[in-house]
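Before relying on records like the one below, remember that each one covers exactly one chain. Contacts with other chains, cofactors or solvent are not represented anywhere in the record.
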Amino acid sequence: MAQLHAESFILPPPWSQGELEATLASPFTFALIRPNAFLLAQVVAGEATLLTIAVSPTARRTGLGRALVTDFLTQSQTRQATSAFLEVAETNHAARALYTAAGFVPTGRRKAYYRSAGQSVDAILMGRPL
């Protein structure tokens, strides 16, 4: 998973193997895994959070991301979540379009939230009811 995440991200910085393992150790976390893609999420107190989604650059624009987001919404409801949230880099237009198509709307902004190699980008907070 760490290798795929590293292939998929520059900003925000990719998660390390240790960060992935620590996140997956939580009883609130679940993973959705497909060939060339995965999504990590948590459901806590009725709120689902999409933590990260990674799709191999060679498998993009094939519907994998859309399928994972759809599965995230379904799994979150199964786990008794009534709302879903995520944050996305302001500059990640493809991901923002994917989330908008899945019914997410902007709810806020975190200034200069993502930082890497001297670069900073705002995070757009998005949410939707389930």
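Residues 2-129 form a domain with the Aminopeptidase fold (CATH 3.40.630.30).
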